[in-house]
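Hello Y.,

Per our agreement to keep a running log of every chain we model this quarter, I'm adding this entry. I've kept the format consistent with earlier entries: sequence first, then predicted structure.
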Amino acid sequence: MSFLSRIRGWGFWPMARKEFIQMKRDRITLGMMVGLPAIQLALFGYAIRTEVRHLPTVVLDESRSAVSRSLVDAMRNTGNFDIVGTVRNREEIRARIEDGEVRAAVVIPPDFANDLKRGRTAQAQVIVDAADPLASTAAINAASLAVRATSTVRAPIEVRVRPWYNPSLKSSTYIVPGLVGLLLSITLIVITSMAIVRERERGTLEQLVVTPIDKTSLMLGKIVPFAVVGYVQMTVILTLGKLLFHIPLNGSLPLLYTLSAAFIVANLGLGLFVSTIAQTQAQAMQLSFMFMLPNILLSGYMFPREAMPVAAQWIGNLLPLTYYLKILRGILLRGAGFERMWPEALVLLGFAVGVIALSVRRFSKTIG
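Predicted structure for the entry above:
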């Protein structure tokens, strides 16, 4: 018997026809299968840039001379440094970098101009937040361009790049802390949405609704266990990151765990919101994946946000992971305290409260 005869004998074509008809009837799922990849391709193809430019930079110019200003102008003209202000000392440089306001600093010593006049090599320094190796590489290349633009034959200029927080420029030091936020975001949204939709498909959700429990308590009771799972995942990733990749833990772990609560709740709220839209587990999975790619590509987890177009940066500002990554890398790599991280923590708290309130309200309407 030929292969085609076997297919006909097994009823292949009637079964395939039945599946196509079913797919046609489920227009929401079909639309997501076709439309979402097209939208995401257009968005991410436009937004993702690996070349890092326009690093926010401050200047400590202790020379205050024409030639020092020429060096600063040359660095600005490379396009890799956006000069956003000046500082008075190195302590202010550290504070501005830890606050996340700037990513680099140009330091020109007092004897810079005198060394040039005397024919000696004049030295300057570029301090860069090397938690992101791509940004560090861009800063090193830009510093070399600026040196070539300002050096003279008689008295060359040497600019030394000093990487902070990741002196060896290891990509794992940048990526692994971000994995905490990325994996929490993915798993919490998926498991929450899938679990609730599965309850609805089986008919057990309606049985829970008729019990003497208000709907808000019902939903909070369902998501709290997932929050505990999130903390367990976080602990496992941090432990393995330290043992396998030697990720530094420079800050306070109790502070990190405390600030993580808002992020975990925000993602559980997103999962709950997805469950109010999706009618089937397949739809819940697809909608959950719709949140995953922006989290990976637009939050700063993999690609520096400074390299993205402004529109993509605005979209990234709508993602809780964008702010949580700043908390993770700030505490783990820079040793930042609450006084540095409170703005991001406040935004995450607002996300958590808003998303949970919206999701509980929608959920009450969908099962009411």
